[in-house]
Amino acid sequence: MVGNADEAEARLREACEILDAHGDRGGLCYARARLAYVVAPWNPEEAERLCAASDFLNLHAVTLEDLAAACGAAGDREGERAALVRTLDLYEAKGNALASARIRPAIA
């Protein structure tokens, strides 16, 4: 598919359909991100929609929560707080009110 954007787009759209049907949210997120990268040069609106519709923000936030826990366990309170602040930003950008409410007290 290298150098063939049309082929890459077709395969990635097929992958998105399959992953969505199987409920593989992590794989779907990755496939949508790759698809957004492929279509962005000629369809930036769709690329933006793909990035917003996937669970990328939530997955990124969960990863940052893990980082915060690791920093806390290592005694790095500054790193822990920084990771939690960024986590909250991502959850709020996604509109994930439950996760935002869970993280907010940890920052205070």
List keywords for this structure.
mainly alpha; 108 residues; 2 domains
SSE topology sketch:
Layout: H1 5-22, H2 25-39, H3 44-53, H4 56-73, H5 77-94, H6 97-107
Helix pairs in contact: 1-2, 2-3, 4-5, 5-6
Summarize the structure.
This protein has six helices and no strands. It has 108 residues and is an all-alpha fold.
How would you describe the overall organization of this protein?
- The chain is an all-alpha fold and 108 residues long.
- It folds into two domains: 50 residues; 51 residues.
- Helices cover 83% and strands 0% of the residues.
- It has six helices and no strands.
- The protein starts with a helix and ends with a helix.
Domains counted in the coordinates: how many? 2
Low-confidence segments: none
Structural class: mainly alpha
Compute the average pLDDT: 89
How far the N terminus sits from the C terminus, by CA atoms, comes to 48 Å
Helical content stands at: over 70%
What's the helix-strand series? HHHHHH
Number of strands: 0
Q: What general outline do the C-alpha atoms trace?
A: elongated
Please report the number of helical segments: 6
Hey, roughly how much beta strand do the residues contain?
A: under 5%
Q: Rounded to an integer, what's the Rg over CA atoms? A: 17 Å
* Biggest sheet character: none
